[in-house]
Structures are given as structure tokens and as C-alpha cells.
Write a structure and sequence with these properties.
Helix content: 25-40%
Largest sheet: 5 strands, mixed
CATH class: Alpha Beta
Structural class: alpha+beta
Distance between the termini: 35 Å
Amino acid sequence: MSEQRLDRRGVRVRIEGGVQGVGFRLWTERVAHDLGLGGWVRNRRDGSVEALFCGPADHVANALERCQQGPPSARVAAVKILEEGDTAPETFAVLPTA
């Protein structure tokens, strides 16, 4: 296994609080693009936002830190890691509500 492969991380998270209707998905897409991450983001019917971040471990950690605050209008109550592993997406997408 290459060193580059070992440094990759994939994390699926759920962000809870006042996170819908405040531009959280667009903001998350911009953060992912800025950090060179793959994955996706979507609203959940329960009012949360769910995201998958894949890429260099330090860049994923940076995205998770930024999600603790979110965009200016967001009120983040919690960022919960749902699943962790090295997953494949190399591009980032905004998905429909699930």
C-alpha cells in the first residue's frame, strides 16, 4: 500500500442544529473544493445536514473543524461521525434531500 493511500480518510458526518435554510450545503461544497476533498452533502428530512468527506487525512480533519462553526447564519449544535473509512469519491456533489 502506498504512503499516499495510508494518508487518506473518509468520514460521513451528520451536522445538527439550525443548519438548513442557511446555505450550509453550498458552504460545505465550497469548503470541500477549497480543501480538494471528494464526497457529497445533503439535507436530511429530520433537519440535519449529512456529508461525506474523502481525501488527505489532514484536509478531512480541517473540514470537520470548519463544520463545527458552519456558515455565518448556521447554529451548529453537534457534528456526529456516523461512519469512518477510506472511501473513493474524488469529486464533491450536492445531493437531493434524503
